[in-house]
Write a structure and sequence with these properties.
Elements lengths: L2 H13 L6 E3 L7 E3 L2 H5 L23 E4 L10 H8 L18 E2 L5 E5 L4 H6 L6 H16 L10 E4 L13 H18 L3 E5 L1 H8 L5 H4 L3 E4 L2 E6 L2 H4 L5 H19 L1
Parallel strand pairs: 5-6, 5-7, 7-9
Antiparallel strand pairs: 1-2, 1-3, 4-6, 8-9
Helix pairs in contact: 5-10
Bound molecules: iron/sulfur cluster.
Length: about 260
């Protein structure tokens, strides 16, 4: 692991709220020690290599490297534990305009998780995801499709959350660094629930989960994977609310039928 990778990983774990790391000394197989929390905060920046006493770039990486970094998803992780770790989060700039943090809602043991982009005004007000007009459409889509297809579920049976937990100003698209920081909590949520399938609503969710630049039109209707979990991309309900998107509405219903049959048949 080079110095830049080490720095990125330390910052990554710091943003998860982890204060200490096990590090190996000498060969990397010796005794482990718990580094103080400051070790994370003081992760060296690449330019530090030029300072006196720092190891020149030309030399191999130092022997003191993380031996057992905390897992991305701590063992036995749960949604309440993740919510506790988020706390009164100020890890990215989106906290500045937030009224309520929107963590997620629904069945914590759901077989199906929907992931949207971020809270809007209604969600920010109530602290719940998908409660505005787009949320009402999503509820109708889930409930009506399930009923028509003879699948005995409704919205409370699934889990719904977003890539970012705080409302972006003027409902703008979350920026890449905001998605990366808050996406760590999304990853923990998905890993804690371990649903049978995930449905990404819109291109922001698709980008966050599939690390792709492709748009929804290209991605939708096909199965992808987030880690080992099948993932379907479809349109965000707010896009479907626009009157000229009738064709997209039909396609979204088809996508949802596919997902519901896969998960609940
Ligand atoms: S969007 Fe996420 S990372 Fe940013 S402040 Fe809100 S909870 Fe924290």
């Amino acid at each position: 692991m080079d110095r830049e990778e080490l720095r990125r990983r330390l910052e990554f774990y710091r943003d998860l709220g982890m204060g200490g790391l096990y590090v190996a000394s000498g060969t990397g197989h010796g005794e482990a020690a718990v580094a103080p929390p400051e070790a994370v905060k003081r992760a060296p920046k690449p330019e530090a290599a030029a300072k006196p006493g720092a190891i020149p770039e030309s030399q191999p990486a130092p022997a003191v490297l993380p031996m057992a970094l905390p897992p991305l998803e701590p063992a036995g992780d749960t949604l309440p534990a993740i919510l506790t770790d988020i706390g009164e989060c100020t890890r990215c700039r989106l906290h500045q305009g937030r009224h309520k943090l929107v963590f997620g809602s629904g069945n914590e043991a759901a077989k199906l998780v929907f992931v949207g982009e971020g809270p809007g005004a209604d969600e920010d007000e109530q602290g719940l995801p998908f409660v505005g007009r787009a949320g009402q459409l999503l509820t109708q889509m889930i409930d009506n499709t399930a009923r028509k297809e003879g699948i005995p579920i409704s919205r409370p049976d699934v889990y719904i959350c977003n890539v970012v937990k705080c409302r972006p100003p003027e409902n703008r698209t979350p920026l890449p660094d905001e998605m990366e920081i808050c996406g760590q909590f999304l990853a923990r949520q998905l890993a804690a629930i371990r649903p049978k399938a995930i449905c990404a609503l819109g291109s922001t969710a698709a980008k966050a989960l599939l690390n792709t630049k492709d748009g929804v039109t290209k991605l939708r209707g096909k199965w992808h994977k987030w880690r080992e979990i099948p993932l379907m991309v479809t349109y965000h309900p707010s896009y479907l609310l626009r009157p000229y998107n009738q064709e997209a509405k039909k396609e979204a219903w088809e996508d949802l039928k596919k997902v519901l049959h896969y998960v609940y048949d």
